[in-house]
């Protein structure tokens, strides 16, 4: 049923009642707080849609032009005809762009139930008008002040008559008609032009300073002549001692009817900064994706045996973050990003021990076994949908406490939406095009303006949210490059798939994504790129993907990325200077063994490993023999094993385990009496407090681990042994936390309802509205509005039994076991044993009701 076919609605509830199901679904989808919990009927939905918190949320999610339209309605007469609104937006001279965009903006406000009524009587919901209308405490973003009627409300009748007379109008018999005459003068363009033509130049200068706001000014008890001229004619009106205001009607005349200085009907274009070949972008992004995987593995390997301690308040200390940054060879903000990403992906957590430390989770081992492309997709999807924001690390919270990596206070619920939107804007550019970051920020500011009017009305000051969104956008651009979602600033093919966006071609990108590049559009350097959104500029940004869609998109991104990643190598190049060069990524078993046998000296396109006595001893401690090491290097080196490296392995192996360390507190035993004498004679052994127990045994007053380290520092190669005298193999064990779940994102308000929930909610609301508004034939006196029908038990039973025979529906009042009362429309099927079984139109299902809980019953006036 169309709205035009019905009489003009008298309330928001009536306007909602005239909507079809698709329109109600659009409302509930755009304002999900209205569906939590599901309203009982459309009256309750309208009431909830007009609450302050819900209206504030809705206003904060409008784009700039829709918000400007709402602000204009707040200073327009209530109700306002469409031509009056158009005049406020386009001015007396008109503006084609504004006139073309205004129906879309008004449609948005209507869809979100912020505006109701037909084009002859447009009404802004009362709460929105209170938030956006000008007042002395909360100036309007339009810069307009109060109307003549509002500004003169406390003025004496005599003073009003003086102003009317001085302005050249006939005196009236009462203040109401005098104010009306003054208002009519100020809204008449020709009469106002004649009045202002006689104003002194200094008076015009005062008006020009107030015309675009703020409209308030200060005057002395004895105003200057040019101010007195304005005050005597009501062009300035006093609002408080020493304060005057420019009336709204006067300001609108001086502005040529415009409510806004600069209406912004079209979103700013996302400007290109550079254009690259798509193949170059994909290759660069794939290389960075490989580096991202290597960095996360390096981080978790570094924390393999237990990472930094957890601060008492939670999180990583500044010193530990610096150490991690040095280990990763990255700046501290970048190190914080990798740490937070691994934590959000469930790869690391705190171990929960008494001396709590960070360590890898069991899921990390499972993650390592997956193909590289799948591992990357897991990281990228976590980043895209997570609310943990590493860019805040090092900042201050509301209590002026430092925000630490892995600590509390880093969740920002707006982060997923901003990341998704930034990447969607990139997806709308031609393939290989890197955007200008400032133009991306300008676009986001248009789509979600600062919370000026709404938040100022609430708190009286800006709350910094726009600044956070701008920072989130900048962090998104840099983090996407680090992660390999973008390459050289442009969105990669696998990044596009991760987003769920279609490949660029003859069709534009996703709705609202700013897509504008067709298959035949220029894309080379220097080519003029088409402007964004000139045909459908105000489509809403696409919603975030559902979990199922996210999994599908991640799998698609992994498939695209897999062939772009470098193939792992099964060999290294050994050099005579005791180094090995890995010309690319190594197969996992080779990389793990080489990481034990050698130390990483440098990273990059090729990784350089250096063999040292300590690294060789580490491999021997892990249970390898000299023969194992020689065989390993021979099999995996494309060059012959250099003689110095072979000598190093043999020399360390020959001395390895010659000394044995056990627990006495600790002891050293050795078959070589001379070697023990050498140790005792060494001054560096004084700290170990050794003494001879037997010709081949020394006892120490320190623990075995410290004794091992002390002897190794002296240049010896001792080995630990068990209580049975066996050599203990110090395998490179991995400390793991108990099973941990990844941190859940913190949502920004209620989640967007899916189609199933929307259908069920709309059906319930419609049924409840039917029960509340259906015309009835009461069995007794008509109950007062909102009250349940009241009939006696006998009348109730007789009416219900009659309805079973006739098949008619009834209106009943019902109180459930918890004492909650409701009104329902039912079609009784049978009555027996004190229960009535009926089809409940409200719940859209068959239910059974105890008769004693039915307060009363009434027949419907019509089916």
The main pleated sheet reads as: 6 strands, antiparallel
End-to-end Cα distance, whole Å, is 18 Å
The helicity comes to 40-55%
- Number of beta strands: 26
Determine Rg (CA atoms, Å). Answer: 38 Å
Structural class of the secondary elements?
alpha+beta
> Percent of residues in beta strands?
5-15%
Low-confidence stretches: 453-466, 506-542
State the strand order across the main sheet. Answer: 21-26-22-23-24-25
Notes on the structure:
It is built from 34 helices and 26 strands. Strands 21-26-22-23-24-25 form a six-stranded antiparallel β-sheet, sandwiched between helices. Strands 18-19-17-16-20 form a five-stranded mixed β-sheet, with helices on one face. A hairpin with a 6-residue loop joins strand 1 (115-116) and strand 2 (123-124). The protein has 863 residues and is of the alpha+beta class. Mean pLDDT is 84; it is low at 453-466 and 506-542.
Topology (SSEs and partners):
Blueprint (H helix, E strand, L loop, with lengths): L11 H6 L3 H10 L11 H8 L2 H9 L3 H12 L6 H9 L5 H16 L3 E2 L6 E2 L1 H7 L15 H4 L5 H10 L8 H13 L1 H9 L3 H10 L5 E3 L6 H8 L4 E4 L2 E3 L2 H7 L17 E4 L2 H25 L15 H11 L3 H13 L3 E3 L7 E3 L1 H7 L3 H14 L29 H13 L5 E3 L1 H11 L4 H8 L5 H19 L2 E2 L2 E2 L1 H7 L47 H15 L11 E3 L3 E4 L5 H10 L1 E4 L4 E4 L2 H9 L4 H11 L6 H13 L4 E3 L3 E4 L3 H9 L8 E5 L2 E4 L3 H10 L5 E2 L34 H19 L2 E3 L14 H14 L3 E6 L5 E12 L2 E6 L4 E6 L3 E7 L3
Parallel strand pairs: 16-20
Antiparallel strand pairs: 1-2, 3-5, 4-5, 6-9, 7-8, 10-11, 12-13, 13-15, 14-15, 16-17, 17-19, 18-19, 21-26, 22-23, 22-26, 23-24, 24-25
Helix pairs in contact: 2-33, 5-7, 5-8, 10-11, 13-14, 17-18, 20-26, 21-24, 22-24, 25-26, 28-30
């Amino acid at each position: 049923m169309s709205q035009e076919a019905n009489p003009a609605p008298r309330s928001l509830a009536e306007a909602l009642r005239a909507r079809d199901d698709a329109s109600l679904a659009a409302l509930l989808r755009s304002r999900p707080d209205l569906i939590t919990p599901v309203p009982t009927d459309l009256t309750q939905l309208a009431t909830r849609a007009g609450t302050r918190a819900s209206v504030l949320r809705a206003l904060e999610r409008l784009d700039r032009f829709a918000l400007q339209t709402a602000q204009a309605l707040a200073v327009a007469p209530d109700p306002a005809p469409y031509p009056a609104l158009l005049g406020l937006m386009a001015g007396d001279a008109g503006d084609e762009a504004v006139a073309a965009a205004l129906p879309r903006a008004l449609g948005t406000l209507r869809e979100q139930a912020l505006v109701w009524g037909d084009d002859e009587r447009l009404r802004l919901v009362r709460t929105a008008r209170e938030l956006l209308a000008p007042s002395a405490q909360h100036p309007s973003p339009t810069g307009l002040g109060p109307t003549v009627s509002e500004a003169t409300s406390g003025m004496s009748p005599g003073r009003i008559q003086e102003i009317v007379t001085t302005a050249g109008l006939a005196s009236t018999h009462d203040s109401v008609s005098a104010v009306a005459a003054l208002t009519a003068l100020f809204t008449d363009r020709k009469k106002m032009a004649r009045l202002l033509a006689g104003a002194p130049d200094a008076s015009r200068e005062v008006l020009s300073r107030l015309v675009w706001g703020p409209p308030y000014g200060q005057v002395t008890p004895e105003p200057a002549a040019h101010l007195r001229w304005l005050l005597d004619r009501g062009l300035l009106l006093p609002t408080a001692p020493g304060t005057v205001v420019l009336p709204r009607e006067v300001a609108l005349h001086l502005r040529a009817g415009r409510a806004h200085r600069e209406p912004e009907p079209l979103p700013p274009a996302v400007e290109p900064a550079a254009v690259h070949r798509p193949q170059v972008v994909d290759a660069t992004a794939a290389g960075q994706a490989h580096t991202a995987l290597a960095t996360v593995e390096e981080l978790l390997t570094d924390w393999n045996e237990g990472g930094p301690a957890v601060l008492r308040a939670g999180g990583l200390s500044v010193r530990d973050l610096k150490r991690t940054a040095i280990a990763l060879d990255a700046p501290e903000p970048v190190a914080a990003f990798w740490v937070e990403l691994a934590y959000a992906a469930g790869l690391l957590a705190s171990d929960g021990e008494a001396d709590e430390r960070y360590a890898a989770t069991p899921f990390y081992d499972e993650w390592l076994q997956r193909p590289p492309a799948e591992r990357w997709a897991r990281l990228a999807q976590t980043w895209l949908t997570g609310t943990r924001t590493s860019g805040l690390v090092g900042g201050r919270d509301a209590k002026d406490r430092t925000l630490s990596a892995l600590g509390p206070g880093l969740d920002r619920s707006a982060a997923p939406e901003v990341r998704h939107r930034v990447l969607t804007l990139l997806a709308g550019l031609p393939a290989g095009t890197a955007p200008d970051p400032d133009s991306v920020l300008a676009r986001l500011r248009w789509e979600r303006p600062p919370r000026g009017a709404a938040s100022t009305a609430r708190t009286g000051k800006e709350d910094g949210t726009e600044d956070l969104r701008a920072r989130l956008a900048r962090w998104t651009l840099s983090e996407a490059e680090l992660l390999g979602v973008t390459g050289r600033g442009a969105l990669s093919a696998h990044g596009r798939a991760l987003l769920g966006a279609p490949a660029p071609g003859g069709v534009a990108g996703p709705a609202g994504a700013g897509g504008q590049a067709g298959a035949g559009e220029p894309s080379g350097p220097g080519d003029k790129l088409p402007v964004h959104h000139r045909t459908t500029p105000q489509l809403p940004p696409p919603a975030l993907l559902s979990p199922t869609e996210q999994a599908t998109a991640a799998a698609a991104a992994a498939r695209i990325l897999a062939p772009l990643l470098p193939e792992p190598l099964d060999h290294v190049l050994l050099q005579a200077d005791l180094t090995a060069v890995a010309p690319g990524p190594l197969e996992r078993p080779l990389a793990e063994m080489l990481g034990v046998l050698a130390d990483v000296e440098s990273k990059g396109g090729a990784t350089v490993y250096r063999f040292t006595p300590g690294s060789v001893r580490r491999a021997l401690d892990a249970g390898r023999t000299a023969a194992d090491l020689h065989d390993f290097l021979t099999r995996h080196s494309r060059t012959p094993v250099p003689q110095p490296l072979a000598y190093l392995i043999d020399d360390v192996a020959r001395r390895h385990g010659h000394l044995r360390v056990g627990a006495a507190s600790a002891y050293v035993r050795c078959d070589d009496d001379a070697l023990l004498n050498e140790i005792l004679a060494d001054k560096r052994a004084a700290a170990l407090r050794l003494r001879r127990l037997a010709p081949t045994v020394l006892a120490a007053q320190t623990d075995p681990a410290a004794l091992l380290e002390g002897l190794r520092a002296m240049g010896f190669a001792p080995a630990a042994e068990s209580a049975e005298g066996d050599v203990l193999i110090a395998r490179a064990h991995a400390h793991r936390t108990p099973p941990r779940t990844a941190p859940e994102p913190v949502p920004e308000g209620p989640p967007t309802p899916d189609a199933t929930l929307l259908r069920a909610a709309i059906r319930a609301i419609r049924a409840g509205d039917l029960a509340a508004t259906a015309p009835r034939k009461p069995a007794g006196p008509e109950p007062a509005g909102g009250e349940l029908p009241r009939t006696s038990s006998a009348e109730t039973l007789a009416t219900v039994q009659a309805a079973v025979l006739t098949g008619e529906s009834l209106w009943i009042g019902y109180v459930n076991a918890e004492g909650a009362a409701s009104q329902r429309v039912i079609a009784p099927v049978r009555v027996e044993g004190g229960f009535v079984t009926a089809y409940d139109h409200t719940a859209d299902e068959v239910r059974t009701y105890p008769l004693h809980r039915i307060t009363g019953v009434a027949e419907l006036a019509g089916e």
